[in-house]
Amino acid sequence: EPEVTQTPSHQVTQMGQEVILRCVPISNHLYFYWYRQILGQKVEFLVSFYNNEISEKSEIFDDQFSVERPDGSNFTLKIRSTKLEDSAMYFCAASQGQWNSPLHFGNGTRLTVT
Amino acid sequence: AQSVTQLGSHVSVSEGALVLLRCNYSSSVPPYLFWYVQYPNQGLQLLLKYTSAATLVKGINGFEAEFKKSETSFHLTKPSAHMRDAAEYFCAVSEVGGSEKLVFGKGTKLTVNP
Q1: What is the mean pLDDT of residues A63-84?
Q2: Which of A42, A51, A54 best probes binding to B when mutated, by most B CB atoms within 10 angstroms?
Q3: Which of B34, B89, B93, B114 is the most exposed place for a label (fewest CB within 10 A)?
Q4: Rounded to 5 degrees, what angle do the CA atoms B53, B56, B59 make?
Q5: Residue A102 to residue A93: CA distance in whole angstroms
Q6: Contact B94, B100 (CB under 8 A)
Q7: pLDDT class for A102, splitting at 50, 70, 90?
Q8: CA distance A41 to chain B (A)
Q9: Mean pLDDT calculated for residue range A29-33
Q10: 3-state DSSP assignment of residue B113
Q11: Where does the pLDDT of residue A97 fall: very low under 50, low under 70, confident under 90, or very high at 90 and above?
């Protein structure tokens, strides 16, 4: 079964640095998402993306975050100036439709900010 | 706004015993409900989903869940646990016709003892 692929699997960065997390969704999926999971906490919604624009974002997704799908395949999450509290597992997900369509998740990128 | 409560952050059962993982939801409109499983170092994998058809939903790996509107519950069960079932399980809700995002519970880590 086609997979959602995320790279890198682990990223270590210094506070204040920019990071870009990459995702290659399943080709026939139209809705794309980023979620994150801080160690020991819930999986939290960050942002959804459809038709080349953000369709919904959470209060976590502030001006330091951005998403884009520049070439029609890669879906990226950029954090402009990382903070210690951005350390988390970041999951990319994709679906064919809304609401009852299952989300297919990648294996995640573990971001460690030092 | 919808929310999910998973009772018990850790559940431990013996191999062959019944597995019961509890999930209660809160939603102002009819919900879609999901159970996801996360094996170590992997992403979230859909186990099963409820989308307003049959209230008893069968999923992969012998798991099933029953939607009980009167109890606002969607508990996950499996008659006989296997060692390979050891993982973290997440209940999630989205709203029919509402926000497309999934709201997750905190997760329940299942340990299966030989």
Answers
A1: 92
A2: A42
A3: B114
A4: 95
A5: 10
A6: yes
A7: confident
A8: 6
A9: 89
A10: strand
A11: confident
The letter for the amino acid at A25 is P
Q: Which residues of B touch A58 (CB under 8 A)?
A: 101
Contact B102, B4 (CB under 8 A): no
Determine whether the interchain pair B106/A106 forms a contact, defined as Cβ–Cβ distance below 8 Å: no
- Under DSSP, the state recorded for B61 is G
Task: Output the six-digit token pair for B26.
Answer: 């809160």
> Where are any strands of DSSP class E within chain A?
5-7, 10-13, 19-24, 31-37, 43-50, 53-57, 65-68, 75-79, 88-95, 104-105, 109-113
How much is the average pLDDT of B92-100?
Answer: 73
B43·A105 Cβ contact <8 A: yes
Mean pLDDT of chain B: 91
Structure-block tokens of residue B22: 């509890």
Assign A95 a pLDDT band (cuts: 50, 70, 90): confident
Asked whether residue B76 carries a pLDDT value surpassing 80, the answer given is yes
Q: Is the pLDDT of residue A99 over 70?
A: no
Q: Are B103 and A46 in contact (CB under 8 A)?
A: no
Q: Residue A4 and residue B94: Cβ atoms within 8 Å?
A: no
- Please, which residues have CB within 8 angstroms of residue A96's CB and are 6 or more apart in sequence? A28, A29, A30, A31
Chosen for mutation from A100, A101, A104, A107 (greatest number of chain B CBs closer than 10 Å) is: A100
Pairing of strands A10-13, A109-113: parallel
Of A103 and B79, the one with more pLDDT: B79
